[in-house]
Amino acid sequence: MEPRIIRAKSPAAAPAAAPAVQVWPVDAEADGQRLDNWLLRRLKGVPKSLVYRVIRSGEVRVNQGRARADTRLAAGDRVRVPPLRLAERAPSAAPPREFAVLLEDDQLLAVDKPAGTAVHGGSGVSFGVIEQLRRARPEARFLELVHRLDKETSGILLLAKKRSALLALQAQFRQRETTKVYAALVAGDWPARLKVIDLPLLRTTDTAGERHVRVSAQEVDAARRSITLVRVVRRIRLLGLPFSLLDVTIKTGRTHQIRVHLAHHGHPIAGDPKYGDFALNRRLAREAGFGRMFLHARALALAHPADGRRIELESALPAECQALLDAP
Question: Measuring CA to CA, which of 21, 97, 146, 211 is 20 to 30 A from 111?
C-alpha cells in the first residue's frame, strides 16, 4: 500500500480529512535495507528532515517497537508510519535523464557522471543522478547508488538494479576489495617520492552548516584513518606554471579524501572550489577556459555480484580535461 499524504489546503478550501496511520509490510526485495532509506523511497515528496524527525520521535515503529534510522529491516516486518500532513507546494520533480552507460546487465549499472551533477538530492540540491535515472526508467523496480562521487567529480558511478547486488557491492567497497583510480591535475611539481599518504581525516561543520574535512591528529577519536596512493603520470606547464597529472588510488573512501590529502601537501587540485587555490582557479577559468575541478574517476575494478567474475571499468577523460592537458 502506498503512503497517503494529506496536503493542507488554503483557508478557503474545505478541510481535508485527517491523515491516517499506515502499516506497511516489508517484502523480500527490501530485506536488510536500512529503515531510513526504505522510508525515503516510499515517501516521495516528503522532506528528508521530516522523515528523520518522525523516526527520532519514535512515531515510526517496526513490529510495534521503536526503531532507529539505521535499523535493518527483514522480510515480513511491519512498519508503522504516522500521519503526515504537508503544506501545499508545487512539486520539484526531477527531469528524466539518461547518462552515458559504461556497463549494464540485470544486476548493475555503471554510468559516466558529468562534473557539476550531484549523485542525489539534498543539501540544497533538488535532485541528482539517482532521481533523474529513476524518472527516466519508471519500469525499474529497484535502482540504488552503490557509492558516491562529489558533485564536482566526474567519472564512473555504480548503481545496483537488485537488492542482493547492492548488498554484495557495498560489502566489496567496505572490505576494500575494489580498486578505484582517479585522474587528478594538481598545482606544482608533485614529489615523485611521495607515493603513500596515510593521514587521518576529520569531518566538521561550520556555523553555516557547510561541511569541511581536514587532516587531524591521530589521537582525535572522530578522525578516521585514510590512505591514498599517488603516482605521477605527467608533468606539464600551464599559464607558465608547473602542474602534475596524477593517478590517485584510494584504499579508503572518506569524504573529500583525495582533495584534502593532496591540498594538505601543498598541491591542491586544479579548479577545486573548496580546498583549492582560488586565485589560480580564477586564472584557469579566465585564461584557459577551464571552469571545473580536475578530478575524474577513471577506473574501477570489482567482482561481479552475481558470479564473482572480475570487471574492469574505464572512463576516458572528459573533453574539457583533455583539452587543458593538450593546450600549447
Answer: 211
Max CA distance (Å), the chain: 73
pTM of the model: 0.75
User: Per-residue confidence at 49, pLDDT binned at 50, 70, 90?
Assistant: confident
- Does 92 map to a domain? no
* Amino acid, single-letter form, for residue 144: E
- Other beta carbons within 10 angstroms of residue 301's beta carbon come to 14
Q: Are residues 187 and 157 in the same domain?
A: no
Q: Give me the domain span that covers residue 219.
A: 176-326
Same domain, 136 and 242: no
Q: Where are the beta strands (DSSP E) in 99-153?
A: 100-104, 108-113, 144-145
Which residue in the list 112, 150, 272, 277 is annotated as catalytic? 150
Instruction: Give domain status of residue 93, yes or no.
Output: no
Q: What pLDDT, on the 0 to 100 scale, is given for residue 93? A: 72
Residues forming beta bridges with residue 277, ordered by sequence position? none
Written as nine digits, the cell of 92 is 520539484
C-alpha cell read off for 34 = 536500512
Which of residues 59, 87, 115 is at a domain's end? 87
Among 87, 114, 146, residue at a domain's last position: 87
Distances (CA, A) of 128 to 96, 151, 186, 212, 298: 10, 9, 27, 21, 20
In the residue annotation, 106 being an active-site residue is answered as no
Residue whose entry in the numeric block shows the C-alpha cell 556555523:
207
Lowest mean pLDDT among 21-25, 35-39, 44-48, 244-248: 44-48
User: Which residues, listed in sequence order, are joined to residue 101 by a DSSP beta bridge?
Assistant: 111
Q: Which three cell numbers stand for residue 192?
A: 615523485
